[in-house]
Fold:
Amino acid sequence: MPYLILSDIHANIEALSAVMAEAAGRFDKILCLGDLVGYGADPNAVTKWARENAAAVVRGNHDRACCARESLDDYRPAAAASAIWTNEQLSEENLAYLDRLPRGPLRYDDFDLSHGSPADEDEYVMTVMDAARLRDSLGAQVTFFGHTHLQGGFLVTRQSAKRIEPQTAIEIEADHFYLINPGSVGQPRDGDARAAYAIYSPERHLIEFCRANYDIEKAAAKVRAAGLPESLAQRLFTGT
Ligand code: ZN
Structure:
């Protein structure tokens, strides 16, 4: 059974729609690694879509922040402004759904779903060192994570870790552990502005990294029309 693995959609319904159109017919279930909302202009549409379509979702820091459950002191001004705006926009039922999302890591079949690191949902797994340190925190051979908005991941062996570049599909080998980031659907930061996602086929021991073109102009125009910070519109074009 292939899975569509999505992370960091960030209220970008244009990017999400493009991914769903491109990946159609290639998966059985949809799994999300958090940050459904924040930054983008369509928090209600994306949350409703997740409620109706995702088989499992773990919460991200922006999902928490947009439920007004915590101080925004640690957030940059644009992120804090979008969290406040998002909280005002969200319907009662969408807020309640986001508020109930489970904290990762969440076991799904025989793999794990996490927003940040499996040791700490708010921790960024950026470097080979970060990944190597997590060796004992990995509860499954394959752990999917997000939060960094960087597609790719790490191969973790008993002794070390190695970066996995996202250009190609990778084959899961026995005796190795994998930390895999599908990239961000709605706000990529790896220099590629296209929406990022991954497809995991356990029977084929295969993870494919994919990118979809989407209507960035439209998503950015909505960000501006909502009165959200201009930087949140601009970065969509550069993927940074
Ligand atoms: Zn995010």
Remarks:
- The chain has a mean pLDDT of 96.
